[in-house]
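User: Here's a chain of 84 residues. Predict its fold as tokens.
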Amino acid sequence: MKVAYFREQGLEVFLDKLKIQGWLDLFTNTQLGCSAPELAEFYARVLVTKGTMTSEVNGVKIVVDAQKLGAILGILAAGFDIYV
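Assistant: Prediction complete.
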């Protein structure tokens, strides 16, 4: 994610909220890496029901809630439901 682009679009409040929650590094750290095709598959199949996200990637079923996702990513989970 390019922070400068979001600033140019007047989305500083969004960036501030990510920073306060400790999520900004997650979105801007290019060293974390991810597979774009697998990420696309995850989002194409994702279903959110009562705070639980379910998807499948390469035949592997993924089921997480905000607390579990926060622990996996090493970020605060508070407020995640607002984004979902």
